[in-house]
Amino acid sequence: MADSNITKRALAEALKHLLSEQPFEKISVGSICNECGLNRKSFYYHFKDKYELVNWIYDTEFLENILKKDFHDSWELIEEFCKYLYENREFYKKTFQTEGQNSFSDYFSSIIYSVFYEHLEDIYKQEPHIDRYVEFYTDAFVCSIKKWINRKDCMPAQEFSDFLKSAILLLSERAYQLYRSGHSS
């Protein structure tokens, strides 16, 4: 297993280096292998394509580490998530540009969907189509993340996570007030 992770990490570092020089679409499995001195057979032993390699990078650098931490609330998780994306924004800026089947963008959306589903299940338990609500929030969150990461003047992670929190809480508070005032008469 240790040798497997060494090979995977070498491939990951090669991809990261290549991404610092060119767009994701222009990078081939062959160029990744050439960059780290491995053959294509080694690559395909570990990954089915370069998209799976990107997903593995996200899983090992972020998801595995985040699962080891104990957060007091969801906001701390969002702060940590934004910090990771901000620190690796050049990599994710390029990987988010590719859309469609097997793309990191689809993979990322599916992870966010799962997280939101778990958190929104109690709130929308009476609704017949919870998946529509989860999809709405997922799309809004993923879109805002992509726009943030791609901005030339990308605000720091803490500032962006504070913005997300403020936007969500202020909207929720205002909607609740309007609901209460409409039902109190």
Describe, in short, the structure shown.
The protein is an all-alpha fold and 185 residues long. The chain has nine helices and no strands.
Number of helices: 9
> What oligomeric state is this?
single chain
**Radius of gyration, in angstroms, nearest whole number:** 20 Å
**DSSP helix fraction:** over 70%
What does this structure look like?
- The protein is an all-alpha fold.
- Helix content is 75%, strand content 0%.
- It is built from nine helices and no strands.
- Helix 1 (2-19) crosses helix 2, helix 1 packs across helix 4 and helix 7 crosses helix 8 (130-150).
- The relative contact order is 0.09.
Topology:
Layout: H1 2-19, H2 29-36, H3 40-46, H4 50-67, H5 74-87, H6 89-96, H7 104-120, H8 130-150, H9 157-183
Helix pairs in contact: 1-2, 1-4, 5-9, 7-8
Characteristic key phrases:
185 residues; mainly alpha; 9 helices
